[in-house]
Specification:
CATH class of the largest domain: Mainly Alpha
Mean pLDDT: 93
Number of domains: 2
CATH superfamily of the largest domain: Hypothetical protein af1432
Order of helices and strands: EHEHEHHEHHEHEHHHHHHHHHHHHH
CATH topology of the largest domain: Hypothetical protein af1432
Helix content: 40-55%
Bound molecules: NADP nicotinamide-adenine-dinucleotide phosphate
Shape: elongated
CATH architecture of the largest domain: Orthogonal Bundle
Radius of gyration: 28 Å
Oligomer: single chain
Length: about 400
């Protein structure tokens, strides 16, 4: 009789995944289909034995990115086994823990780059490890195959290691390069699934001064509606681009953009109390619509509750809704970023988006004119600051033309 009881062939793909990219996914898929694996489990490393990880990206975030990246492949899954375990993430401990949850007839295959095979003897309890898993080493063009074959022969005779080599296409993508691209303002599109690119962008990962953004990012994601939060993130990124274009500080612009609407969803009653507390000028437009003061209120909250004292950023947040007659060049960027960020969808927004990168003052003038018509139609009051700001900008235009 034929014994129909066969175990599963499970591939394990360990890695830092900082961040995950198409090289990792391609490797796992090529090996899955070449070796005939039933599934591949991605195991993001918690505390790696062989390298220091960039600390501003959490293990949970690396895990989340893997989850997003593999979502469309039913043969792929992700395990948080190493992330949850305290101490150094030795592969031997992971394999033993995983084996205890599997059937004894299941076979584990550890997927790795062929370079790692050359260093296998440096791994903790490598001899025992080779008895528990089969190694699949991916070789790519450029790998010293003589040294590799010599090492495999040695490991086979020394500890009966089972090591198979699989040739995979070369994809010159690396996590290190991706991180550098992000800090150099270069595109990372098409190097990884779009869901991962979006996650990195939304969470300000791998960015200079990430630590500045993280606590505010956390606070806003918990207090704002989804739509308002997205708008804040998009305003931050747009403000950064405008700052680069106009020679202002991009990090400060991004932070001002992120924080500008933190009080936008406060109810009118709370807003009235805060207008009093912060001594905000009661322009008729604010009396009519207290929410209009959310920029000035946000600046007050940042000073009072977060001891925030960067006046450049505070001013930009204050005046992002109705402007100011002496609005600074930096504040203008936040004012405009709020109008043109990519999730905005109103008549004329494409025109403002183009104009913003050509002439920031003309963008403000044109936008205020459009608002005037709109508010007049609705018989709503215009804040005095807006009128004075436009007058100042028009006078400047006149002087420049003379
Ligand atoms: P990683 O850089 O995050 O990459 C994960 C895997 O993807 C590696 O096998 C890597 O091969 C491969 N890869 C990366 N870019 C690729 C591309 N463009 N095309 C094809 N393949 C690509 O891996 P890691 O941080 O070195 O960690 C690998 C695993 O080894 C982890 O699970 C780690 O815990 C384990 N490890 C254990 C010990 C120990 O237990 N003592 C010691 C060292 C490592 P390449 O390396 O060839 O790029």
């Amino acid at each position: 009789m034929i014994n129909k009881t066969v175990g599963k062939r499970i591939g394990l793909m360990g890695g830092s995944f900082n961040p995950i990219h198409f090289g990792h996914l391609m490797l796992a898929e090529q090996i899955r289909t070449t070796i005939g694996l039933d599934e591949v489990i991605f195991v993001p490393v918690g505390n790696p034995p062989h390298k220091a990880l960039q600390t501003d990206v959490t293990s949970e975030q690396r895990y989340e990115m893997v989850k997003l990246a593999i979502a469309d492949n039913p043969f792929f899954s992700v395990s948080d086994i190493e992330i949850k375990r305290e101490g150094i993430s030795y592969t031997i401990d992971t394999i033993k823990e995983l084996k205890s949850t599997l059937s004894s007839i299941d076979q584990l295959y550890f997927i790795t780059g062929a370079d790692a095979i050359l260093l296998l003897e440096t791994w903790k309890d490598y001899k025992e490890l080779t008895q528990l898993v089969k190694f699949i080493g991916a070789t790519r063009p450029g790998i010293d195959s003589d040294a590799l074959l010599k090492k495999i022969t040695q490991l086979k005779s020394e500890c009966h290691a089972e090591i198979e080599l699989v040739y995979i296409p070369a994809l010159a993508i690396s996590s290190t390069d991706i991180r550098s691209r992000i800090s150099d303002e270069k595109s990372i599109r098409y190097l990884m699934p779009e869901s991962v690119t979006d996650y990195i962008y939304q969470h300000f990962l791998y960015r200079e001064h990430h630590e500045l953004f993280a606590p505010f990012f956390q606070m806003l994601s918990q207090t704002l509606s989804k739509k308002r939060f997205r708008h804040s993130v998009e305003t931050a990124h747009t403000a950064r681009l405008l700052a680069i274009r106009y020679g202002e500080d991009p990090v400060k612009a991004e932070l001002a953009g992120l924080l500008h609407d933190l009080a936008k969803e406060y109810k009118n009653e709370k807003m009235r109390d805060l207008i009093d507390e912060f001594g905000i000028d009661k322009d008729p437009a604010i009396v009519h619509l207290p929410n209009l003061a959310h920029g000035e209120v946000a600046a007050g909250i940042l000073k009072r509750d977060y001891h925030f004292d960067d006046e450049l950023i505070l001013e930009a947040i204050k005046w992002h809704t109705y402007g100011h007659p002496q609005i600074s060049s930096f504040s203008k960027l936040i004012y405009v970023a709020d109008i043109i960020e990519p999730s905005r969808d109103f008549e004329g927004v494409h025109y403002f988006r183009r104009l913003a990168y050509q002439n920031i003052d003309e963008t403000i003038i044109a936008f205020c004119e459009q608002c005037d018509h709109h508010l007049a139609e609705k018989q709503m009051a215009i804040h005095g600051n807006s009128k004075k700001m436009v007058m100042t900008l028009l006078n400047q235009r006149k002087n420049d033309n003379e």
